[in-house]
Amino acid sequence: MDTTQRTEQQRSADRRRRELLEAADRVVLRDGPGASMNAIAAEAGITKPILYRHFGDKGGLYAALAKRHTDALLEALRAALDAPAERRERVEATLDTYLAAIEARPQVYRFLMHPSEGGPQSDQGFDVGLHSAPLLRRMGEELSKVIEERVDLGPDSAQLARVWGHGIVGMMHAAGDWWLGERPCSRAELVRSLADLLWGRLAAAGDKVGGPSF
Amino acid sequence: MDTTQRTEQQRSADRRRRELLEAADRVVLRDGPGASMNAIAAEAGITKPILYRHFGDKGGLYAALAKRHTDALLEALRAALDAPAERRERVEATLDTYLAAIEARPQVYRFLMHPSEGGPQSDQGFDVGLHSAPLLRRMGEELSKVIEERVDLGPDSAQLARVWGHGIVGMMHAAGDWWLGERPCSRAELVRSLADLLWGRLAAAGDKVGGPSF
DNA sequence: CTCACATGTTACTTGCGGTAACAGTAGCCT
DNA sequence: AGGCTACTGTTACCGCAAGTAACATGTGAG
């Protein structure tokens, strides 16, 4: 067969693909998630149909783009999660890693999580409806695995671990999103507060007495 | 003044508005969040510009639509949250209320949370990017208030309560979203697992020994 | 030289959000 | 009555973005 030739051509195609993704990245980071295919093609120095030949449709481009960032973030999280340290330390390190990532590149984060919120007249963005889930889901599954591997939860551990994995990721995500918007405290404080929550401080706290009237 | 006349006209306008919202509701529930303004107008028996006169733009229609459902859900949550019962009971009741709501009307839920995921060719949906936050945010703020009112957290209670409010809501949301998709267990089990997480079972559990190799 | 193939283009269709300009209708004011 | 305002409704259009068809061009293999 022509495998050797194929590989050569394939390599060139892959390089092109990577270049296109980087161009897309630049545009998305500059113009927000509302970036149009035309704009991306222009940034890459080519025209639309080529993008479509490479990625099928806009969702494909988005998926490829998201996968890059998602993979990178997941790797960082895995490192923090799998470190040989006390559980609380690991939890705090993981929370901090995530928050540091979204703090450092809020544009990327918003692109991954929140679809069209670009410019004033950009009402249609990437259809992240089906794609924003994956990041959260993948993080949830990853965390679930680690929990089940390393925490002794008795019977039903598999199910419990999955519920907790997704729940904790959701907590991290929502709190991070809110924090990124309002910046009501430092990152370290946020990490500490969330870890405290996970450590049962809600259950341990007493009822408030002398509260409002009743 | 012409207040009396105005009220009469206003009433008619309000009735129309409500009718339009109900039509929009039907269409969104049927066609998913990718419903077009034309489709909504047709369902209401009128044409597009009228929708725009009433709601300004698509975001306005969405916001009005979302507000109805959000208000209803928030009211139910408030009731569970403010009940005169033990804290754990209240937490479980609130979780269950939320999960029951999204279980009963997944279409509404997906519309509120996830934008365009409609039909196969519907790539642009409502720009929920800026509107899905509100529901989560409002729930988070609501919960924050209740936490601060009723739980004794010592100094920094305000900040801590807000972090926890948003975090817990995010946990509930993410776990609910995942659960709704996979249905890995009953609602009661999910509620119990999440409450256990909030009650510090993660911190209380021991390390797993004899785990994978290390 | 020519065939096959990959790369690139221009020019188009479709469909949606949003708007302008026009038409009919009900009540009030003098 | 007749006209003024204000609301409801329409058709017909613009702009823009996704996605596609058809055409052009370079390049290595036989």
UniProtKB/TrEMBL annotation, chains A, B:
Residues 36-55 bind DNA. Signal peptide: none annotated. It comes from the Bacteria. Pfam families: TetR_C_32 (PF19344), TetR_N (PF00440). The keyword Magnesium does not apply. The keyword DNA-binding applies. Residues 14-73 form the HTH tetR-type domain. Keywords: DNA-binding. PANTHER family: HTH-TYPE TRANSCRIPTIONAL REGULATOR RUTR, TRANSCRIPTIONAL REGULATORY PROTEIN (PROBABLY TETR-FAMILY)-RELATED. This is TetR/AcrR family transcriptional regulator.
